Amino acid sequence: MSLAHAVLTSLIEKSSSGYDLAHRFDKSIGYFWHATHQQIYRELARMEAAGWIESSSAPDAGKTRKREYRVLGAGRAELARWACEPSVPLDLRDEFMVKLRADAALGEIDLRDELRRRTALHQEKLAHYRAIEQRDFLHGKPLSREARIHHMILKKGILFEEGSIAWGADMLAVLD
Question: Are 3 and 39 in contact (CB under 8 A)?
């Protein structure tokens, strides 16, 4: 996946300035596709040069150079083309797993504190995801197709965090 496709998706959801896009990105797509604000701005320039998006002076720009971006037909076509391509399944590269293998091989490394720290981070993220779920999806009203898709994406994150917490408890029992 390229950052361009994540940015196109976000801009189709809502045309916005680069600044607003970067902040919305952090609170949505950024949970599973990380990008710095500088990377997003560079990508916006590339996408505009490619004819996928266009920008105009933002209504609230005043004397600033603030631009608002919107997706053009070519950008929608590119996103649809990319979305229909097969995706490579997640390739897990976790340094901590190698450290655990080193512990198994050496038998003298104590990784319990690191495991507890990592488990605590998963618990924090899980609490955050559950708060989003409570706020946005569990209000008892029927959800649109778009909202149901967003909820299912969030549920995948919740299941990942729950699985990581459960695995951490099991691994801690092994290390103890």
Answer: yes
Q: Is residue 90 domain-resident?
A: no
Pairwise CA distance, residues 78 & 82, whole Å: 6
CA distance 96 to 100: 6
Q: How many domains is the chain partitioned into structurally?
A: 2
34, 6 Cβ separation under 8 angstroms: no
Domain span at 108: 95-175
Question: What distance lies between CA 39 and its chain's CA centroid?
Answer: 15
Inform me whether the pLDDT recorded for 31 exceeds 70. Answer: yes
Supply the pLDDT for residue 61.
Answer: 58
pTM to 2 decimal places: 0.82
State how far the Cα of 31 lies from the Cα of 17, in Å rounded to an integer.
20
CATH code of 33's domain: 1.10.10.10
Distance CA 33, CA 25 (A): 9
All residues at 6 or more sequence positions from 46 whose CB lies less than 8 Å from its CB, including other chains: 4
pLDDT tens per residue, range 114-157: 999 999 999 999 999 999 999 999 888 899 999 999 999 999 99
DSSP 90: P
